[in-house]
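Appendix B. One record, verbatim.
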Amino acid sequence: MGKTVIFDLDGTLADTIYDIRDALCGMRRRLGFSDISVEQTLKNINNGAYALVKRSLPESIAENREFIEDAKKIYEECYEKCYNNKTKAFDGCAEMLKILVGNGCSISVLSNKQQPFVEEIVKTLFPEIAFGFVIGQGRFPTKPDPEAVKYIINETGARKSECYLVGDSDVDMKTALNAGVHPIGVSWGYRKPEILAENGAEFIAEKPQDINKLILLT
């Protein structure tokens, strides 16, 4: 059996931040607030839609769960209209995935983004790639909970020693460690490489081809 490689989506395979920011701005306008910057958006991502929305609103209403839930619905309505407007695959990722599949690896996507958006983005950006699983927020607890990773491992029959989780954030590295698989960071994403190293990354790829070299030659 080949190796199993699980990829984060946002900041790892796809540059999604501009559409996320546009949706947050749309939400904030409907609620009477000013726009949010890309830099602020980057600080707020990685822990799912509820946390994203909560962090993107004034602290004075952060503990008002009903308000945050209503705001989340507005955010999702806005994101549904723009989620594929500016989103694009990072250079080299499609080829990297093809090489892994061609060498017998099982590849999956695991994201804290809502399931329908994950499915549509993956389908749009990587139409020729045969993913084993495409998992977004909904069925399993959000990362860094390891339940979804363990599910993929069980379903593929993979050995943990031959399973890798590739991501751009501390959340991804913690997820890998929690699941007992190899945490692999990427330098082109939304968190600095030193944050990945501090949170357990065994290796940090400077370009997608580095992932091929690491996984196929070890």
